Amino acid sequence: MIAMPFEKPLDDPPMLRLAVEGDRPxxxxxxxxxxxxVGLGYVGLPTALAFHAAGLRVIGLDASAARIAAxxxxxxxxxxxxxxxxxxxxxxxxxxxxxxPSAIAGAAxxxxxxxxxxxxxxxxxxxxxRSACQTVTANARAGQTIVLTxxxxxxxxxxxxxKPLAERGLVAGTDIHVAFSPERIDPGxxxxxxxxxxxxxxxxxxxxxxxxxxxxxxxxxxxxxVSSPEAAEMTKLVENTFRxxxxxxxxxxxxxxxxxxxxxxxxxxxxxxxxxxxxxxxPGPGVGGHCIPCDPHYLLWQLRRARVETPLIEEAMKxxxxxxxxxxxxxxxxxxxxxxxxxxxxxxxxGIAYKPNVEDVRESPALEIMARLRDxxxxxxxxxxxxxxxxxxxxxxxxHVPEPEIGAYDLVLVHTRHVxxxxxxxxxxxxxxxxxYTLPLAANVVRV
Length: 448
Known about the structure:
The chain has helices spanning 44-53, 65-73, 80-90, 127-139, 156-167, 206-216, 229-259, 264-271, 295-305, 311-337, 365-375, and strands spanning 33-38, 58-61, 95-98, 107-112, 145-148, 177-180, 199-203, 223-225, 346-350, 379-383, 389-391, 397-399, 411-414, 432-434, 445-447.
């Protein structure tokens, strides 16, 4: 067990001091850090770095020794700007990463940022979240502000924080402040700085909301308050379900346009010229990552328990789940069109991360697509400099091919187009199946 961090209190940065020591409530006077971030994944670590860059004293906690070691060594998948922040933070006594849960008691505020996946049956897997909340409530103390950010079902903040804290004698709004504020981090996208993305927050009481808002405002420019944790929880579900439904619709329009011999990207470009009433979504190979393929299922699961039907959302999620099957079938069709059976065909997949410029393959459609192509008898390789190895659905482990001979493959499937990918080399491929809808159509290039 790692020793308690910050053996003596650190000085508050003068420009960010919340209150002079004598003005603080007695319960807050012994806090040695401003923020403790529980979970140092793709949300937690950038959040910790944003707070630290704003001048706060930060403790980062994670249950994985490997993750702690990776963070300390700087071997993490972050934007270049966040890697720079991490390098600065590593040399500062006001930034510490640890596995010691007792460190939670030393922070004035605690933010929970852990994964909320679904299982093989598309049911919420709350194991990690429940464990994190139990750890926080066990180590919480009076005067703290606790904010949950993990996407989950409506009512989680009450079930996993408010109730167990009350059982310890810490009443939300009186002894301790509790709120929900959904994370809004887009991995690999440098277009939106952390400080520029508004945060939504809803507390158990009005004072809880204000305490959480004050804390978030120390690094973010805009904080939008809602009436309750439940409203904030539902906000995140609406955001990602909206995206899921529209991505499923874009994929359907791609199928319709191909059947009508139309270029779907030309059509979407044209529709995007309308300055109101249209939001641009483009088709692709499917949806990966830890949000869109998972989050709407938390809502569907809860609504089924309440006997509430949501046919539009349910059909959209079915469409998203079946999209990798359609991509694999389309690869078979393209090969068949040139007289090549799938059995024995050599196929190269370019990019298997779930989105450009990240290492993350969680829920990546590529894993299912490659597994299905292999099950059909094809020889499948992949090239992705971000992903040295990957385990397919079914358990088989594949390794990245550093310099594939493009012309030696019967089909090249472009799944994820990372920045810097040299698409000029695709001219050597007999056939290219573009699942990104970003390549210009050519004699050897077709789309899903």
